[in-house]
Amino acid sequence: MSTSHKLVMQAKGLVKRYGQVTALDGADFELRAGEILAVIGDNGAGKSSLIKALSGATIPDEGEIFLDGQKIHFNTPIDARRAGIECCYQDLAVAPAMTITENLFLGREMRREGFLGNTLRMLDKKKMLEIAVQRMADLKVGIRSMTQAVETLSGGQRQCVAVARAAAFAQHVVILDEPTAALGVKEGNMVLELIRRVRDKGLPVILISHNMPHVFEIADRIHIARLGKRACVVNPKTISMSDTVAVMTGARDPATLPAECLA
Amino acid sequence: MSTSHKLVMQAKGLVKRYGQVTALDGADFELRAGEILAVIGDNGAGKSSLIKALSGATIPDEGEIFLDGQKIHFNTPIDARRAGIECCYQDLAVAPAMTITENLFLGREMRREGFLGNTLRMLDKKKMLEIAVQRMADLKVGIRSMTQAVETLSGGQRQCVAVARAAAFAQHVVILDEPTAALGVKEGNMVLELIRRVRDKGLPVILISHNMPHVFEIADRIHIARLGKRACVVNPKTISMSDTVAVMTGARDPATLPAECLA
Amino acid sequence: MSSFKDRLPPISQMGPFIALAIACAVFGMTTDNFFTGANFALILQQVMVVGVIAIGQTLVILTAGIDLSCGMVMALGSIVMTKFAVEMGMPAPLAILCGIGVTAGFGLINGLLVTRIKLPSFIVTLGTMNIAFAITQLYSEAQTVSNLPPFMTALGGTFDIAGTPISYGTILMILLYLGAWFWLRETASGRHVYAVGNSPEATRLVGIPTDRVLLGVYVLAGVFYGIASLLLVARTEVGDPNAGQTENLDAITAVVLGGTSLFGGRGMILGSLIGAIVVGVLRNGLTLMGVSSVYQVLITGILVIIAVTVDQLSRKGAR
Amino acid sequence: MSSFKDRLPPISQMGPFIALAIACAVFGMTTDNFFTGANFALILQQVMVVGVIAIGQTLVILTAGIDLSCGMVMALGSIVMTKFAVEMGMPAPLAILCGIGVTAGFGLINGLLVTRIKLPSFIVTLGTMNIAFAITQLYSEAQTVSNLPPFMTALGGTFDIAGTPISYGTILMILLYLGAWFWLRETASGRHVYAVGNSPEATRLVGIPTDRVLLGVYVLAGVFYGIASLLLVARTEVGDPNAGQTENLDAITAVVLGGTSLFGGRGMILGSLIGAIVVGVLRNGLTLMGVSSVYQVLITGILVIIAVTVDQLSRKGAR
Amino acid sequence: AEPVIGLITKTETNPFFVKMKEGAQAEAKKLGAKLMTAAGKKDGDTAAQITAIENMVTAGAKTILITSSGDAIIPAVKKAQAKGVQVIALDSPFEGADALFATDNYKAGILIGQYAKAALGGKPAKIAMLDLFPGHPVGAQRHNGFMTGFGLKANDAKSNELSSTPETVCAADTDGNQAKGQTAMENCLQKDPAINVVYTINEPAAAGAYNALKKAGKEKDVIIVSVDGGCAGVADVGKGVIAATSQQYPLKMAAMGVAAGVEYAKGGKKATGYVDTGVTLIAAKAVPGVESKDVKVGTELCWGDKK
Ligand SMILES: Nc1ncnc2c1ncn2[C@@H]1O[C@H](COP(=O)(O)OP(=O)(O)OP(=O)(O)O)[C@@H](O)[C@H]1O
Ligand SMILES: Nc1ncnc2c1ncn2[C@@H]1O[C@H](COP(=O)(O)OP(=O)(O)OP(=O)(O)O)[C@@H](O)[C@H]1O
Ligand SMILES: [Mg+2]
Ligand SMILES: [Mg+2]
């Protein structure tokens, strides 16, 4: 509503083509400090493509991305990670043969103290295990052993691992692509709880979801993606769920929405 | 309610162990003719393990399965397929490098007529393509080319392919493991529509879902799985959503439910 | 929906052709005798054995396996068919069938070990490679078998097209490639080979008998090795117990150069033919240039890398 | 949380040990001299070269690659270090470092081609195998280099433990295995090797520089081949341009017998040591049994299959 | 144009063939001919040799010199001859060659067999046989020749099978490679520590065997004999590593072959028949009853450097 908000991330005119398919067709994007921004849209609307561009997983063909007002150019997810952006991808990005703990700490391993850690660079497996147990308990997901390989987990348990990882290490922005899709009612609520906690720490969260009740429960603003573009950004406190869905599916032109619905 | 219903599938005391983890711990199961049976439960409750046992994808360690009252023993998914059971698994079971059409018809390919088909066993690619276009249009999922490899699809599009396959070829029972998890509002409704159409053809459907509104909208009965067992079967017309969730999460003992809620 | 452009293979599959074209251009410029019909006919003849082995190898690799036994099994097949014909006096056609039967039998053993006991194909075929080699040596007593019946060497004969002698074996090889191409592309069982290699679990779950597909592939590969035995016999006019020592690496090289992924499920059979021809062209062209053999090895090493690099870069460009 | 039982490797990783135990039992029963300390010490000496190559090979295979160049690169390394020392009069330690530098350089080339141009490792290392071979032949003029400085062959020396002569090279090999094991198991960069092999895309997406991990693995593998060169030189006391011809298949066999998956991301380094020892035990035991050479090949083939079958069945039993 | 001559060797990794190639190159330069060379990937790689024959014919070679890896090349040779190409066998005989310039490998074996028998001086023999690899004719000829020379019952020169008797207590393959020779000898010593005679297929294998014996402290008690007579091998004879070796003359073979090729190209006629390039037994210590040359002679002659 007020435009005085500080923009943490911003993107202008992103284009991404795959052969004949245009996944992003000039998409704009704005994420404000400390907010939970939901991104919704039909299947194939380009939501995942958008956040992949923001997290360095793909390089857009055209368009600009800004972080804290600075123009940036992420060539790989490493760059995004350095900038403190953590992402939980839709296809989860876990190493199936590795254990839950290893996956949680992949690329962010903790070393022992003293000689063993500094010189021999030995991992502190015990500490990582403890933290992993703690994180998974937070999500109330009944996993029996943290040294199970991820490939032996149920679909929802696997998703919890990926979500917990993204939430645990972010310094700047958290991006979650359909984090509750495979989760049960209880576990889904736990993830919403986790998202709120992250926001309360002051980190903005980008949440892609098809679950409208979740979106309306938690989002501060809703970015509606349609056909590779941003159709509009709406305010969940002033717009109805059915209007939102109508815009999302193309049944209603966003230009016809009353101004107070937009955000 | 009435026990005179014909049972299409039935299972008694299924047990499945993976090392120290017991995925199924004496689960019972009953599917009646022509019904939509929802299976719900927490993550890791053993829902996927249950339907994998029913579809021959895994062999249970203990327990019996009956199809139309006959005791059966599925050693592989081939046996289940021969019996007319089609299953859409949670992890989708698609061949990523193959096209949408090929995946739709994998194992159920159509041959040309005449010499080319009978003797040379040549595929009728044109016809399969037409049908594939038709099926995906039914689900209102905007896929641009049917000769795209499945690995290039968005998460929801991929799920539509797997769902469409299961629905298209079943002769006896359709099993869908979280078919709408990755789907948008519109596409999700299309899948519910598809499920109804299948039921109307007289085929019973087993639907695993975490989406309670969907479950209550469509299910004739709800099987609640908990800790590898069947906690109870409830009637969505007489039980409230919150009671159902309470039983599912273990907050309420199913024995305390009023009798008319059970089914 | 199916314009001509759609039917062309995508640029990502044209890499091997580009590599071949470059090799030909270089040799054409540096030697006199390279660009003659007779020389191309000769190269085709030289690659026909490896080319046919590469068909079987492609099938196995498409299922995410690998067959190290192919060369030795082929050698055994050629010894069996020649000895049966020469020493046991069996009619040539029957002897040939026996030889192919033996190679198919090895395929069956490979396939059974891979499907029933779920052993990795690398180890299984390493074992059967040794076994086939030892049986070949023992059965042939390390002696070359000669004085073959003419029927057996008929495929080595040639006929003239515009003054260029084309061998029947070359024609057979090309027909086998076309057949394999048709099978893999146009029939359900062929597509299942790709599916098994691409995602064995998904293929199993949709109710395709993956073990039967795999077993069929190994047996079929064995049959192709048997046909390669016959081509070898026809080409060399003897049964040679020393054959098959380098063919397995050559065949795998042809398949990989042809763009088939060692991880299975991706690739095309005609690429393997091109790959085999690239290997043959390099050997022929370098000899024509008078490059001595150590330098040939050096240059082959470098050219193989350049070929796949060009291939890879051309794909990037196409994206 | 970490009882003794938890620390034992799971039964699924004990397969290679079972195969080794069975092979030892058979040879122990059929020959007199097999079960002696001296014989075991000897076998360890015989496998030390392949054993050390197998460390590098394991690293590459864990990343879902394969390194065909290992044997030839090792041969080049041994020629470089011996010729530098003998003909250029370089001090032995420096010459050794130069040799290892060359093998590491080949690793670097392999790694760059795999990571920068995204070529399949099979083809890259096939090319560099040929290149290393040709350079070895050209540089050595196919001549053996002898009269080495004693420093260079010191690792071939032995010391006695309870009357059994143990060579320093064997000790070095075991230390290298322990080091590699520690690295792969207890450090972040070691775990990243598994992660890259298990799911390269996931590893990239969590922000691990996969290309750097891969490049490091290839260079490190090159260093191990260089150390193997030194062990070979120490063992044979010459620089032999004919070395390395069978080592690549032997090393890959050791790795696969040791239970590492050719698809990457799964396996354990100590299995490769056991695998290498199994190969050595077979060769030693069969010679002790007086089996003639063709039959040795035959029996090796059969035993390799039996070993992995036992392994596989023991895993099934454990499930 | 200068005459084109092709040389096809079994491999290019064996110093024997490398020398042969050098000899051919030197002679070709001297006589003004163009030399093309090719080789198999390994010994026994007949497929590569056949391909090389065809390619050389295409490239216009009028004479091809070949050290055959096996009889499978014969039909290809016949086809080449039908196109007017002269094909000369070097070192390894095969049927249908226009001429053969070679050593008799069986005889080479006999010589070292006789030497070993005499040097052992009536002690009961315990022999280790370090062979090439299964199924190789040269390996069989040397092996069986050695046994015949030693007075043991063995197959004749035509057989490709390796004989064995109670005296041959151990047999192992070496691929003609030093490291493998060492491994083979080590294993043989485990089998029977009392081995007193070692037959080796070639000098690198002999050097490996010596290494193994030295490590076991037995190098003084064992007689190692070998075949080839390369300069390094002869030097090893001088150092007492090898007791005796049968020397062959690859340079001579190659030079004679190139000369015959130039002759043919100049309108001369094809060479014919068998020219034995000779075998000489080189031993540091002569033994009674066996004719041998000393190391000095061996070094002068080694592989025919100085004809
Ligand atoms: N292959 C396996 N190896 C070991 N454990 C397994 C395996 N498959 C499933 N499990 C375990 O069995 C339990 C039940 O898994 P299942 O997939 O049936 O759960 P689910 O009810 O489908 O859960 P979700 O809603 O998350 O999909 C889980 O704890 C899981 O970790
Ligand atoms: N690698 C690729 N190659 C080709 N096309 C692609 C690729 N990745 C995505 N696409 C296409 O781009 C479009 C947008 O995909 P994207 O994954 O961004 O959708 P999405 O909004 O996340 O959908 P969903 O809700 O189903 O996850 C889709 O039509 C998809 O087919
Ligand atoms: Mg998406
Ligand atoms: Mg599930």
TrEMBL record, chains A, B:
GO terms for molecular function: ATP binding. InterPro entries: AAA+_ATPase (IPR003593), ABC_carbohydrate_import_ATPase (IPR050107), ABC_transporter-like_ATP-bd (IPR003439), ABC_transporter-like_CS (IPR017871), P-loop_NTPase (IPR027417). The keyword tRNA processing does not apply. Keywords: ATP-binding, Cell membrane, Membrane, Nucleotide-binding, Repeat, Sugar transport, Transport. CDD domains: ABC_Carb_Monos_I. It comes from the Bacteria. The keyword DNA-binding does not apply. Residues 9-252 form the ABC transporter domain. This is ATP-binding cassette domain-containing protein. It comes from Hydrogenophaga luteola. The lineage of its organism: Bacteria, Pseudomonadati, Pseudomonadota, Betaproteobacteria, Burkholderiales.
TrEMBL record, chains C, D:
Keywords: Cell inner membrane, Cell membrane, Membrane, Transmembrane, Transmembrane helix, Transport. It is found in: Cell membrane. The keyword Nuclease does not apply. InterPro entries: ABC_transp_permease. It is a multi-pass membrane protein. CDD domains: TM_PBP1_transp_AraH_like (cd06579). Pfam families: BPD_transp_2. The chain crosses the membrane at residues 14-35, 47-80, 92-114, 121-140, 166-184, 213-234, 254-282, 294-313. The keyword Electron transport does not apply. It comes from the Bacteria. This is ABC transporter permease.
